[in-house]
Amino acid sequence: MTTAAVGSPRTYQVRTYGCQMNVHDSERISGLLEQAGYLRAAETDDNPDVVVFNTCAVRENADNRLYGNLGHLRPVKDKHPGMQIAVGGCLAQKDRGDIVRKAPWVDVVFGTHNIGSLPVLLERARHNAAAEVEILESLDIFPSTLPARRESTYAGWVSISVGCNNTCTFCIVPSLRGKEKDRRPGDILSEVRALVDEGVLEVTLLGQNVNSYGVEFGDRYAFGKLLRACGDIDGLERVRFTSPHPKDFTDDVIAAMAETPNVCPSLHMPLQSGSDDVLKAMRRSYRSEKYLGIISKVRAAMPHAAITTDIIVGFPGETEADFQRTLDVVRESRFSSAFTFQYSKRPGTPAATMDGQIPKQVVQERYERLIATVEEITWAENKRLVGETLEVLVAVGEGRKDERTGRMSGRARDGRLVHFATGAGGLAGRIRPGDVVHTTVTYAAPHHLNADGEPLSHRRTRAGDAAEAGRSPRTPGVLLGLPTIGAPAAAPAPTTGCAAH
Ligand code: SF4
Fold it and tell me: How far apart are CA 361 and CA 35, in angstroms?
C-alpha cells in the first residue's frame, strides 16, 4: 500500500469514460487538482489517495459499469485510510444523490456544471467526514476558465461552445448539458495562442454543434471567421474541429476551410441515417439530399479532403428499406472512415420509449452489413493514397504494434492514421512524438496506411522537445467569461457532451 506519508502531497487518478469532451474535462480536473497541490499517481498505481470517475451517461449500461467499478474500489478504500472517491460527469449530473445512496463509500459527487468545485468538495468531505453532493442546474463559469493539465505535447482541445440547442431523440446531452453557450472568439483565440506558445502544433475546436457557434451572440458566420482567425496564428500548423451539424452547415465554412492553409482537409460530419424517415424520427432536421450536397461542395473545394462520419443502425422503426438508404448514402459519400453504432436505448431519451424497437439480432445483422460496406469503401479510398507522400505528425499511443514492427505512428493532415518505418538512415531513435515527418505510403488497409520506406524528411519541433523532456502543456485558468453581447449575463448553461451528433 502506498498511502501518502503525513505532509506529503496527496496523489490522484482520473478515470475517464465517453467522448473527447469528457477527455478534455478530465484535463481540467487534473489541472485543478494539481493547482490544489495534488500529484498525479502513475497509471499502474492501484492505490492513489483520490480517484475521480469522469462518467458518461450515453450507453445503456453506463451505470452498471460505474457501480461495478465503485464496488471494486470499496475493499481498496477500506484498506487505505483517507482515500477519497469522487464521481463527476454526465452520470453524476443524472443520478445525483442516488450515487451516494447506492455506493455510500463515495465521498464526492459533482456535476457537469461545477467541475471547478471539486477540490473544495474533497476538502469539505474530508473535514466533515461525510459525503458531499453538489450538482448545479446551470453553468457558473465557462469551463475553459479552469486550469488544465494537457495530455498531449503536440495537440490540444479548445472548447468553443458547450451544451446543445438541438433535441435529437436518441441523445441525452441536451438534458444533462443544457442549452448551447458560446465562448467569445477573443477568449478562444487567446487559449489557442497560449497552447501554441507551449509548443502545441495542432488544435481541435470542440463544440456539440460547431456550426451553430455564434448564434448566441448574433453572428451566424462566426465559426468560419474563427477558422480564418486561426489561420493567422504563427506556429499553429493544424486546425481541426468537431462536431459539425449538417442542419447548420453553411458555405462560408467550406470556403474558410479551403482558403485557410492550416485548417486540415478533413471533415467529421455525423450522418446517423441515410433514411429521411429515420432522420425525422431522430429529430435531425436535415435530409440525406442536404447531407450529400454539403459533401459534394466540400469535395469540390477540397478534392483531397477525408470525410468521416457517425452512423446509428437499428433506430426504432428503421425498416430494411431505410437501412438500404443508409448504405446508399455511405456508398455515395465515400467516407474515409465511419464510427458505427448499434442503436441502444439511452435512459431518459425520447427514443428509449418509442414504438418499433428493433430486435437485437436484426440490428446486429444490419450492423455487420454496414461495417462490410464501410470497410469496402474506406479500403478503396485508402488504396488511392499508395505512392503519395504525406506529412505525418508523430503521435503517442496510436500504434499498438509499433514496438514489434519497429514503426512509429501518427496522423496525416487529413486525419488518416499512418504507421511509418523510421528507416535505416540514422533517424531511428531520433524521431519523437510531436515531430513532423514526410513519408511515402506503401500499403493501405481499411483503417490505416503503412509507409515502409525511408522517411523523406524529419523536422524536430518544440512539441517533440517537450515530449522528450516529459513536459506537458498547461493552460492557466484566466481570461474568459461568458459572452453577454446584447443581453444581461444570462443564467448560463452546461458543459460538453456525447460522442454522437
Ligand atoms: S446528438 Fe449532438 S446535435 Fe443532437 S442533441 Fe445530441 S449533442 Fe445535440
Answer: 50
Contacts of 242 (CB under 8 A, 6+ apart): 20, 204, 205, 206, 210, 268
Do the beta carbons of residue 329 and residue 376 sit within 8 Å? Answer: no
Going by their DSSP bridges, the two strands 11-16 and 474-475 should be labelled as unpaired
Count CB neighbours of 400 within 10 A: 10
Q: Rounded to an integer, what distance in angstroms lies between the CA atom of residue 286 and that of residue 282? A: 10
Burial of 205 (0-12, 13-18, 19+ CB in 10 A): buried
Ligand 1 contacts CB of residue 168 (under 6 A):
yes
Q: What is the 172 CA–ligand 1 centroid distance (Å)?
A: 8
Atom of ligand 1 nearest to the CA of 209: 3
Residue nearest to atom 2 of ligand 1 (CA): 501
Mean pLDDT computed over 136-157: 75
User: Which atom of ligand 1 has the smallest separation from the CA of 208?
Assistant: 7
Query: Which among 372, 371, 416, 368 has a CA at the least distance from the CA of 392?
Result: 416
Cell numbers standing for residue 43: 497509471
Cell of 102: 447506492
Task: Copy the grid coordinates of residue 3.
Answer: 498511502
CB neighbourhood size of 424 (10 A): 8
- Report CA(291)–ligand 1 centroid distance (Å): 16
Across 77-93, average pLDDT: 92
pLDDT given at position 405: 81
Q: Which helix (H) or strand (E) holds 122?
A: helix 118-128
> DSSP string spanning 195-243?
HHHTT--EEEEE-TTGGGTTTTTT-TTHHHHHHHHHTTSTT--EEEEE-
Q: Label residue 295 by pLDDT band (50, 70, 90).
A: very high
Q: Which DSSP category does 263 fall into?
A: B
Ligand 1 mutation pick, 19, 166, 210, 211, max ligand atoms within 8 A of CB? 166
Compute CA distances 57 → 112, 283, 406, whole Å.
12, 20, 39
User: How far, in Å, is the centroid of ligand 1 from the Cα of 268?
Assistant: 14
Distance between start and end Cα atoms, the chain: 43
- DSSP letters along 473-497, please? -EE-S-S-----TTSS---------
Query: Would you tell me how many other CB atoms lie within 10 Å of the CB of residue 327?
Result: 17
Please say whether the beta carbons of 219 and 174 come within 8 A: no
Q: Do 62 and 349 touch, CB atoms closer than 8 A? A: no
Residue 166 Cβ < 6 Å to ligand 1: yes
Give the position of cell 535505416: 424
CA of 279 to the centre of ligand 1 (A): 13
Coil, helix or strand for 176? helix
In the chain, % of residues over pLDDT 70: 91
Predicted TM-score of the model (pTM): 0.81
